[in-house]
Design goal:
Jelly Rolls; about 450 residues; globular; binds heme C; 5-stranded antiparallel β-sheet; 9-stranded mixed β-sheet; about 30% strand; alpha+beta; 3 domains
Amino acid sequence: MLWRRMTLVALLAVGIAAMTSSMKATAGENSSSVTFYKDVLPILQKNCQTCHRPGEIAPMSFMTYKDTRPWAKGIKTAAVSRQMPPWFADPNYGHFVNERTLSDAALRTLVAWADGGAVEGDAKDAPPPVKFVDGWSIKPDMVIEMPQDVQLPATGTINYKNILVKVNFAEDRWVVAADLRPGNNQVVHHMRANVRPPDSDFMRNAVPGVAYDDGDPAMGRKDAGIDLLGKFNPGLGAQDFSLFESAKFVPKGSDIVFNMHYTATGKETTDRSRLAIVFAKNPPKYRYYVDEGPTAGNLAIPAGDPNAEVVSEMTAQIDTQLVYMQPHMHLRGKDYEVRLIYPDGKMQTVFRTKWDFNWQIGVDLVKPIPIPKGTRVIGIAHFDNSANNKWNPDPTKLVFWGLQNWEEMQNCFMGYLIDPNFKDVRNIFKRSGPSLLPRSTSGPALSTLVIK
Ligand code: HEC
């Protein structure tokens, strides 16, 4: 629908802008004719300013020459190493609506600018400033706000927080779009809003508004059947569930659970974030459902291992279509791959990505991938449990599955299109293969995968 189309148009605009500036850059290759206003600012507008502007997540602004000039060398380094913009998917597998990579041409321009002395140029050459939407980018039918401020410390690592909001939806609802807005842009790194259906034990005894750390016993078990309704990453914007004539289902009596990743800002502060949703006018052709995907609850990562392999598997119980993937690991994660083994034995890699714990990025597929009943979905991850991993909390530990950051996880949240009348959403897939093995002292490795 509307929001997705807007994204595609925006992406095209990015492409054209990048091409134009590259041609200029090539015309004056390794010369100082590359200027901030003419060549660099258009690239920053399209690729960087969503986060690099005052009040947003990045610590420095790239809105003006004065603000950007001191970062010229840093920009070159971050761009060349592909550290920025944050996007880790292997371009050889799949096409994504939310792709965020610098073209080679744009990259060359940034490098030429830094190497040429970060010349300012003529302000007359500047493109018009981008208008950023700081409010809702959808017209909400309903806004759900955390009932009280969450108190946040000035420094240190903040565990993921879970906050229950008693909404108690009065009737079954179909939702076509959702948007999440931080109460405080500087502390909210990313967040999710989950639907807690009335028959779930998840957060059953939680006090509404209280922020529970991941792993707190008061949260109960996060069972299957908890659908992801909305997510927020800096620059992501609203999500549209109607692209494939689809919508999210919120059963009568459901509540909302916010799952928050905060980062400390150096000051004690608070946050109270909000979720906005748009209801469908008509029942959809498909239900858009997100679950935890292939999961290695039996994982074991040996102490010191720089490249520990962990494989998970599940098998489709019905025909469905894959539209979204978001791997999940903790601080030792390195990379994640998703493979499909079809009922006829054909095997195909559909997604590969490097892993960065700080960014938990999900990919929206341009075209749904059919998953016929009987298809095996394989998740293949690697972990660095050596002392060389600067994020590693303890390289001397044999690590098992757990909710805390110093434990590990290996799963890949997935979004599917299913028949709107199919109610048994906890059984779209069943664990299979390596995911059924008893826990050992390593793996389960790829060698445990049975290929007929
Ligand atoms: C999705 C948000 C986002 C986008 C888009 C983004 N950045 Fe960043 N950037 C950040 C955040 C957050 C930090 C600080 C933390 C970090 O380094 O991860 C950062 C840090 C940086 C740094 C400092 C790195 C260091 O070593 O200290 C540079 C340079 C940078 N960004 C350049 C860019 C450029 C150039 C672009 C566009 C081509 C860009 N960023 C796009 C969020 C973003």
